[in-house]
Automatic annotation (TrEMBL):
Coiled-coil regions listed: none
Species of provenance: Corchorus capsularis (Jute)
Protein name, entry field: MHD2 domain-containing protein
Lineage: Eukaryota, Viridiplantae, Streptophyta, Embryophyta, Tracheophyta
Superkingdom to which the source organism belongs: Eukaryota
Pfam families associated with the record: TPR_PATROL1
Entries under InterPro entries matching the protein: Munc13_dom-2, PATROL1_C, unc-13_homologue
MHD2 domain: residues covered: 1-98
Length: 139
């Protein structure tokens, strides 16, 4: 589909359109990773699979040298790569960085909190509930 689209777009606009498609795909992935809803949870071991998925997406847009320049794609992928890397860290590391606001992990507090909210472990859940005074569920 992307090849057909590129065939009908005039050359000067091709990279801009394809870059916009890449940005949309990456924004969609970020929404899944950070805003996926209460039923979307991740464990640290999921980071390896997420990194593989990100690599496939990146290579799709580079398209063996026929697509976007590698540097352009790498720049676009950088923020998502950081979020995937954070998903692979231990919960205690994320909590410590959030508590101290050190930023040593390279993420803002909002991103760290969103990752902890979607973490599939009791330590993250307890921290978020206690730190942000979330009442126990009535269910």
């Amino acid at each position: 589909e992307l090849n057909q689209l590129c065939d009908i777009i005039v050359e000067p606009l091709r990279d801009r359109v394809v870059t916009s498609l890449l940005q949309a795909a990456l924004e969609g992935l970020l929404r899944v990773l950070l805003d996926g809803g209460a039923s979307r949870i991740f464990s640290a071991s999921d980071a390896k699979l997420l990194e593989e998925d990100l690599e496939i997406l990146k290579e799709f847009f580079i398209s063996g040298g026929d697509g976007l320049p590698r540097g352009v794609v790498e720049n676009q992928v950088a923020r998502v790569r950081l979020v995937v890397k954070l998903h692979g860290l231990e919960t205690r590391e994320l909590i410590e960085d959030l508590r101290t606001s050190s930023g040593k992990l390279g993420a803002d507090n909002q991103t760290l909190l969103r990752i902890l909210c979607h973490r599939a472990d009791s330590e993250a859940s307890q921290f978020v509930k206690k730190q942000y005074k979330i009442p126990k569920s009535s269910a």
